[in-house]
Write a structure and sequence with these properties.
single chain, 465 residues, Immunoglobulin-like, 2 helices, 6% helix, 48% strand
């Protein structure tokens, strides 16, 4: 009898202890969370914008764990996830991006389903209704490639189809579509941006990838159409004409340990040539002594009519011309250290592709077109050359103009009077010094106008874009 009595007492104590004990999860008894209120603000929104999910979740007996959400419109899940909760009461204010999906209807009802759970798997469901999503409407979109920006306008009668015509883009390229641009033509991600989402077009943020398009049956892409309902892209191609410049006609050549695309052809003074694909990229600098860029996709040739070699450096992003055996009186040749054909690409970017190379590239010698720069005759015995100088890595230049590649009739600095920007010193070499006591000349694009009639040289700094 005493044994039975003791056993009953012990069992009762264990049961009471289990019923009363608390652990890290709170009281061990069944309970369900309570979703006291839930809303999405604003209730009317544009697909692609951000909204805020607001809810008050509590549980009188057990610690909360998560609030799961699922946003649905037209039978398709737009967004889902789980928001971590803590304690017995949580006020939720959670930002959500409402994505725009292909085929999304305008002014569509949207529902957000909620499931609140505690640490013991107790759950409660709720639903936020009365929400309306609108399709975004744009006045224009920007097609942003690796080297160009094209403005796309809505087609007449269809505000969701955006078109660019008269283009000279490459036959294949990577791109994004942006609602807004920054002042420097980079994408402003405060607006809507479309790119590659798992191999298809979709909205992306700063971490998004570029989409890809290929235009078959042509030398270049002349039209681009984007359908913002289906997220579809269509293009048409064009064929290069006799006065068009496209890289498909250029050869490959290694010069001065740099990779060039080259084309030998006749050029006519005053004639305008259409640029196709990468040659039309805004960043490309066409040597202003021989070309005038009359539009984004056209250049006018300023030199004398004749046979030339066109040189395009895809790293330096510049274009200049050369001739076989250049000589006076048609040309002067500036040769020495510290000059370079104009480019807006930095020395760091150039050196990353060509180790040890900089924006300046000339040397004493005439072994290749990178050793010197060509100066064009602009009047009788008057010559013009535009160079980047001095080197931004050493701030030094030392050079002289010559009449031919046989070191013919050098033009010593002491024989000229220099006007304009005073950066040249010396009696023999035309020197831009870099000594500790010397004034530091700005590394920039300078235009030198040499008048052999008056023995004067005018130097001016120029901005090239």
């Amino acid at each position: 009898m005493n044994f039975i009595y003791r056993f009953s007492i012990l069992t009762g104590l264990i049961v009471c202890s289990l019923a009363a004990c608390d652990d890290e999860y709170g009281p061990r008894k069944e309970s369900a969370p309570v979703i006291g209120s839930a809303a999405v603000e604003p209730a009317g929104f544009t697909f692609g914008d951000s909204v805020t999910l607001i809810a008050k979740v509590s549980d009188p007996a057990t610690m909360l764990a998560t609030l799961k959400y699922e946003m649905v419109s037209g039978g398709r899940v737009l967004a889902s996830g789980a928001i971590p909760l803590a304690g017995g009461t949580t006020d939720v204010s959670y930002p959500l991006i409402v994505p725009l999906q292909s085929g999304q209807q305008d002014n569509a009802p949207v529902t957000v389903s909620l499931v609140a759970g505690n640490v013991l798997n107790g759950t409660t469901s709720s639903e936020v209704t009365g929400l309306t999503g609108r399709r975004p409407s744009y006045n224009q979109l920007y097609l942003v490639t690796d080297g160009d920006v094209v403005r796309l306008l809505p087609q007449s009668g269809n505000k969701d189809r955006f078109e660019g015509t008269g283009l000279t883009l490459d036959g294949s390229f990577r791109f994004m579509l942006a609602e807004k641009l920054n002042a420097d033509n980079t994408i402003d991600y405060s607006g809507h941006v479309y790119g590659n989402v798992n191999g298809r077009m979709g909205m992306v943020d700063e971490r998004g990838e570029q989409a890809f398009v290929y235009t078959p049956g042509g030398d270049y892409t002349k039209t681009f159409v984007y359908d913002n309902v289906t997220f579809g892209v269509s293009t048409t191609g064009g064929v290069v004409g006799s006065d068009d410049w496209a890289l498909t006609a250029f050869g490959n050549e290694d010069i001065f340990n740099e990779s060039f695309r080259t084309l030998k052809r006749s050029l006519e003074k005053g004639k305008t040539y259409t640029l196709v694909g990468r040659l039309a990229e805004a960043e490309n600098i066409y040597n202003p002594d021989f070309f005038e860029r009359v539009s984004g996709s056209q250049v006018k040739f300023l030199g004398e009519s004749g046979e030339y070699i066109v040189y395009y450096n895809p790293v330096r992003k510049n274009v200049f011309v050369g001739v076989d055996e250049p000589a006076y009186p048609q040309y002067l040749l500036a040769c020495g250290f510290g000059l370079g054909y104009p480019t807006n690409v930095t020395s760091a970017e150039i050196e990353a592709a060509y180790p040890g190379h900089h924006r300046v590239h000339t040397e004493w010698g005439f072994g290749n077109v990178m050793n010197y720069v060509l100066m064009r005759r602009i009047a009788d015995n008057v010559y013009q050359g535009t160079f980047f100088t001095p080197g931004d890595h050493d701030h030094y230049a030392g050079f002289k103009p010559f009449e031919n590649t046989a070191w013919g009739n050098e033009k010593q600095a002491g024989g000229f009077t220099f006007t304009g920007v005073q950066i040249i010193t010396g009696d023999n070499d035309w020197t831009i010094p870099n000594g500790d006591e010397d004034p530091r000349a700005e590394s920039a694009n300078y235009r030198f106008t040499i008048d052999l009639n008056t023995k004067t040289v005018h130097v001016e700094k120029v901005s090239l874009r």
